[in-house]
């Protein structure tokens, strides 16, 4: 990340933040790192601010802040965001990418969804290939990346230990995803992995969408349309962009490109 570096044990704000890390009631207000598109939507800006200040889940708060203090050796001189991570991208996106949760040394470090790790490299390179991103890399919150027609988010906004949020943590975070869905109002959701698929279906059902029972099963290439009155939302399943999938070839660049292009076709319709 650009900007001043800190070597203290206290996670400090990245560029764009105001005040020190929030530590509970009465702590200074923080704002998320630069998402220029959120500025065009007061509702999104308000949501982002609420996300950043959340401390609902003690286990997640403790873990994200511990990671921010101890740091990985490769990032020992960097300041970790170490807070919940808002969504990122086009405020009027017709395509929403739904992942799992921030990575401990990726988004938990940089403060921007899918930024600063190999998973993000794989995802944003694909977005760039199909014309949804202005550049193929995402290394820091102030690297100039802009998304057009697409937004990235997650059902859980804090980095969880072992990358495994509990059911209670997912439920505690669900209102943020619900608000984001209502504000952005996408036409297509590209869902990365079974966790995000189940979480999104639960949230849609809570919002009054007609989700089939039993719930549609996740699979790469799965395609499900749900309705709420005259509105429709198409869910597209895609294997997660984790290194476990991309390094083994379970998810290839062509496979991800195909899902994103399908999303573009559906969004245009």
Automatic annotation (TrEMBL):
<keyword id="KW-0411">Iron-sulfur</keyword>
<keyword id="KW-0004">4Fe-4S</keyword>
<dbReference type="Pfam" id="PF03167">
    <property type="entry name" value="UDG"/>
</dbReference>
<dbReference type="GO" id="GO:0046872">
    <property type="term" value="F:metal ion binding"/>
</dbReference>
<dbReference type="InterPro" id="IPR036895">
    <property type="entry name" value="Uracil-DNA_glycosylase-like_sf"/>
</dbReference>
<feature type="region of interest" description="Disordered">
    <location>
        <begin position="1"/>
        <end position="42"/>
    </location>
</feature>
<keyword id="KW-0227">DNA damage</keyword>
<keyword id="KW-0234">DNA repair</keyword>
<comment type="similarity">
    <text>Belongs to the uracil-DNA glycosylase (UDG) superfamily. Type 5 (UDGb) family.</text>
</comment>
<dbReference type="GO" id="GO:0006284">
    <property type="term" value="P:base-excision repair"/>
</dbReference>
<protein>
    <recommendedName>
        <fullName>Type-5 uracil-DNA glycosylase</fullName>
    </recommendedName>
</protein>
<dbReference type="InterPro" id="IPR051536">
    <property type="entry name" value="UDG_Type-4/5"/>
</dbReference>
<dbReference type="GO" id="GO:0004844">
    <property type="term" value="F:uracil DNA N-glycosylase activity"/>
</dbReference>
<feature type="compositionally biased region" description="Low complexity">
    <location>
        <begin position="18"/>
        <end position="29"/>
    </location>
</feature>
<keyword id="KW-0408">Iron</keyword>
<dbReference type="GO" id="GO:0033958">
    <property type="term" value="F:DNA-deoxyinosine glycosylase activity"/>
</dbReference>
<feature type="domain" description="Uracil-DNA glycosylase-like">
    <location>
        <begin position="86"/>
        <end position="260"/>
    </location>
</feature>
<keyword id="KW-0378">Hydrolase</keyword>
<dbReference type="InterPro" id="IPR005122">
    <property type="entry name" value="Uracil-DNA_glycosylase-like"/>
</dbReference>
<dbReference type="GO" id="GO:0051539">
    <property type="term" value="F:4 iron, 4 sulfur cluster binding"/>
</dbReference>
<feature type="compositionally biased region" description="Basic and acidic residues">
    <location>
        <begin position="1"/>
        <end position="10"/>
    </location>
</feature>
<keyword id="KW-0479">Metal-binding</keyword>
<dbReference type="InterPro" id="IPR044147">
    <property type="entry name" value="UdgB-like"/>
</dbReference>
């Amino acid at each position: 990340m650009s900007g001043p570096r800190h070597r203290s044990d206290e996670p400090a704000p990245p560029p764009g933040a105001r005040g020190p890390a929030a530590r509970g009631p009465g702590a200074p207000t923080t704002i998320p790192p630069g998402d220029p598109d959120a500025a065009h939507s007061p509702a999104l800006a308000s949501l982002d601010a609420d996300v950043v200040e959340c401390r609902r889940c003690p286990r997640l708060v403790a873990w994200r802040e511990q990671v921010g203090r101890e740091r990985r050796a490769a990032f020992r001189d960097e300041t970790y965001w170490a807070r919940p991570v808002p969504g990122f991208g086009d405020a009027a996106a017709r395509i929403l990418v739904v992942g799992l949760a921030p990575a401990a040394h990726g988004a938990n470090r940089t403060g921007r969804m899918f930024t600063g790790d190999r998973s993000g490299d794989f995802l944003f390179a694909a977005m760039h290939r199909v014309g949804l991103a202005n550049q193929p890399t995402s290394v820091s919150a102030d690297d100039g990346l802009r998304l057009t027609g697409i937004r990235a988010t997650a059902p859980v906004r804090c980095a969880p230990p072992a990358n495994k949020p509990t059911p209670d943590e997912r439920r505690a975070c669900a209102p943020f995803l619900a608000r984001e869905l209502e504000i952005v109002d996408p036409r297509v959701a590209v869902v990365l992995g079974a966790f995000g698929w189940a979480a999104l279906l639960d949230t849609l059902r809570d919002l009054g969408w007609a989700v089939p029972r039993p719930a549609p099963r996740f699979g790469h290439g799965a395609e499900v349309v749900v309705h709420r009155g005259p509105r429709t939302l198409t869910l597209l399943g895609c294997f997660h962009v984790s290194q476990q999938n991309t390094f083994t070839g379970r998810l290839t660049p062509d496979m991800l490109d195909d899902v994103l292009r399908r999303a573009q076709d559906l969004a245009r319709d």
